[in-house]
Amino acid sequence: MKNIGILLSGRGSNLKAIAENISAGKIPGAKISTVISNKPDAGGLELARQLGLEAVVLPSKGKEREEHDREVAAVLQKHQVDLVCLAGYMRLLSPWFVRQFPHRILNIHPSLLPAFPGLEAQEQAFAYGVKVAGCTVHFVDEELDHGAIIVQKAIPVLENDDEHTLAKRILEQEHIAYSEAINVVLTGKFEVAGRRLVRK
Ligand code: GAR
After folding, report:
1. H or E segment at 154?
2. Which atom of ligand 1 is nearest to the CA of 170?
3. Residue whose CA lies nearest to ligand 1 atom number 17
4. Rounded to whole angstroms, how far apart are CA atoms 86 and 89?
5. Nearest atom in ligand 1 to 117's CA
């Protein structure tokens, strides 16, 4: 069994989608071992408890980045986590943390990277006037929204979209893309050459 640790800061819809896909047998051999939030009021914590998962709060406010990351890593290591999934985790990770889990930290971002890294990517894309938007699941490296891309899903921006309808349709794709990427990584059926991940 492969242990997944989920880090989040918000409502947790990606957590829910991953948990539902595991229950439906779509991510064979995986289980969510712990859910950690750096925000005490994250909706994803309550959701985790409802799903019968361990929900841990490690407040990051006022903490040095690496000091907080060491607390997070200790919980993940206690559960012998094989894969760390950032699911709306709105805090940069320290280089130290990234080194603890080489090619074992994934992030989901609501844009077609390298377009629109950072906060409110869907709003950035909408305001820019793009005709195609989407989401990216990628490995985490020491730069923001930067590591090798595992899965991308693209959708058209519709004439009658606003930033909310666009974000909602991107989120639907996120819920599909994340489980697909987890399967790629857990089955080990890939090679990374430079920035390029090739499925085998
Ligand atoms: C998702 O849209 C995710 O792509 C985004 O936060 C949201 C979390 O939603 N992440 C980032 O912007 C990271 N840069 P959720 O809590 O419902 O899963």
Report:
1. strand 149-156
2. 2
3. 13
4. 5
5. 14
Which residue out of 68, 79, 109, 164 is catalytically annotated? 109
* Percent of the chain with pLDDT strictly greater than 70: 100
Q: Which residues line ligand 1 (CB under 6 A)?
A: 8, 10-14, 44, 87-88, 108-110, 121, 145, 171, 174
Q: What is the pLDDT of residues 73-101, one digit of tens each?
A: 999 999 999 999 999 999 999 999 999 99
Neighbours of 128 (CB within 10 A): 10
Q: Look up the CATH architecture of domain 107-200.
A: 3-Layer(aba) Sandwich (3.40)
CATH class of 1-101: alpha beta
Confidence of residue 156 (pLDDT cuts 50, 70, 90): very high
Is 68 one of the catalytic residues?
no
Question: How many whole angstroms separate alpha carbon 81 and alpha carbon 99?
Answer: 15
User: What are the domain boundaries of the chain?
Assistant: 1-101, 107-200
Residues 6+ apart with CB under 8 A from 166: 122, 125, 126, 133, 157, 158
